[in-house]
Amino acid sequence: MTVISDIIIVFLLLAGAFLSLVAAFGVIRLPDVYTRNHAASKSATLGVMFILLGTFIFFLAKDGFFSSRLLLGIAFFFITAPVAGHLISRAAYNSGVKMWDKSVRDDLKNKK
Amino acid sequence: MIDIALKLSLIILAIAMLGLVYRLVKGPTTPDRIVALDAMGVNLVSIAAVLSMILNTSNFLDIILLIAILAFIGTVAYAKFLEKGEVIEYDRNQ
């Protein structure tokens, strides 16, 4: 445990927790389901990737333990979280959830 | 320094989880609740990672991958149920 790895771990942890808090505030405050999905699927994904990277560096610096499962978890989140967001948003549009009444453009309206 | 950061990030993650619970209870439509549940699964992975650092053990790292996979499968199943009315379809050509 050197000082440099300590500083990197603390930065990654606090940045990841802050991004998760930003995602939660976006999910609370934004007006309709598409904007909420936009906040949740991007910000929360980057936050959890930061925290998993911090955990990886923590165990690598403290024990010298190279955890390939954490790297696999980071890659898994990077691949699957946008896919899950896309599927929720498409299911919401196809099941008839209205957009925010101040949104100006709906490209899928005439496409059936 | 690192103990304070661990506890602080655990508190921040718990506050974020409470905000998502608010949206899960109040959300007007079903996709809102699915968005909140998906983000709660992601937050739960973060809490497991921070907790494995606080308890100083590397035995929880399997659980992280397991929660991630289960949250993804649940979200996909809910989205398919909302869109088509069933999760596993027997006749694909309709």
How is the topology of this model organized?
The complex is a heterodimer of chains A (112) and B (94).
Chain A: H1 3-29, H2 33-62, H3 68-94
Chain B: H1 2-26, H2 30-54, H3 61-84
Helix pairs in contact in B: 1-2, 2-3
Write a structural description.
- The complex is a heterodimer of chains A (112) and B (94).
- Chain A is mainly α and 112 residues long.
- Chain A has three helices and no strands.
- Chain A has one domain.
- Chain A has helices spanning 3-29, 33-62, 68-94.
- The radius of gyration of chain A is 18 Å and the shape is elongated.
- The model of chain A has no long low-confidence stretch (mean pLDDT 88).
- In chain B, helix 1 runs antiparallel to helix 2 and helix 2 (30-54) packs antiparallel against helix 3.
- The chains are: A mainly alpha (112), B mainly alpha (94).
- Chains A and B meet through helix 1, helix 2 and helix 3 of A and helix 1, helix 2 and helix 3 of B.
- Chain A: This is Na+/H+ antiporter subunit G.
- Chain A: One of its GO terms (cellular component) is membrane.
- Chain A: Belongs to the CPA3 antiporters (TC 2.A.63) subunit G family.
- Chain A: InterPro entries: PhaG_MnhG_YufB.
Q: What's this entry about, in short?
A:
The complex is a heterodimer of chains A (112) and B (94). Chain A is mostly helical. Chain A is 75% helix and 0% strand.
